[in-house]
Every structure is written in C-alpha cells, then in structure tokens.
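Practice problem: S26 family signal peptidase
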Amino acid sequence: MRPVLLACLTTALAAAAALAARRTLHVVEVHGESMEPALRSGDRVLVRRLRPGRRVRRGDVVVITRVGPGEGFTLDGGTNLVIKRAAAVAGDPVSPEFEGSEEARVPPGRLLVLGDNPSRSTDSRQWGLLPESRIAGVVIRRLHTR
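Answer key — structure tokens:
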C-alpha cells in the first residue's frame, strides 16, 4: 500500500472513531454535594449515553435530565442534569420508606435513584420512581479530582 493512501486511510479511521466517540460519550461536571464522597463538586465525569435497549444496572451512577421526555414532570433544582446512583431497577423491591410509592417492586421502565450523601440530596425520596427515559447516560469514570 502506498504511504499516501495509508495515511489517508488512517486519518479517515481516526476521524470516524472520534465521531463515534462524540456520539457515545460526553463529559459532565458535578455541581453540589449530593454524591459525596464518591463525586465532589467540580469533578468531571465521562458519561456513556444510554442507547435504546440498554438497561441501567443497580449501583450505576447515572445522569438524569430534569426536563425529559414524557412522564409529565420536571425535577426541582438548578442545572439541567442531575447525577445520582441507581439504587433499585426494574424488578427490585421498593423499600416501604419511600413515600408516594405504592409499588412493592420497581416496575419495568422505572428506577429508584439516590444521592450518596442523603442529607444533601434531592432524589427518589422526593421525586418517586423515575422513568428510564430520563436517563441521559451512565458514568464510566471520573476525569478530574479536586
């Protein structure tokens, strides 16, 4: 293969990989204390967008849209994205301490999210079970620590 052709092919593959990564991954900055000690305000996290058909697993740290598709409610608070931990997913039992939930188990298409710092978090204890359609992505790793 000629060197010029090889260089063009390598550049095209790198561009395609970068484009695919931009569609799949994004960076979110953490604001607030609700996920301490795991995540602190100012941390940046790498988030994988949730593709159709992909499920959130219990324990995943998820990014939630405050104003999202369907289900007719807006989560209170500041920024447009919220980071919480998926405490229970479809089929898991719902703890009776969650007021407003008449479900014994998390129904399909819903999940229960909690902040790691309960005294500084607004989460499913106030919002109830969230629709999975509100999940923008799953945190893969922290990029920056203060």
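Discussion: The chain has a mean pLDDT of 84. Students who identified this feature from the tokens alone can consider the problem solved.
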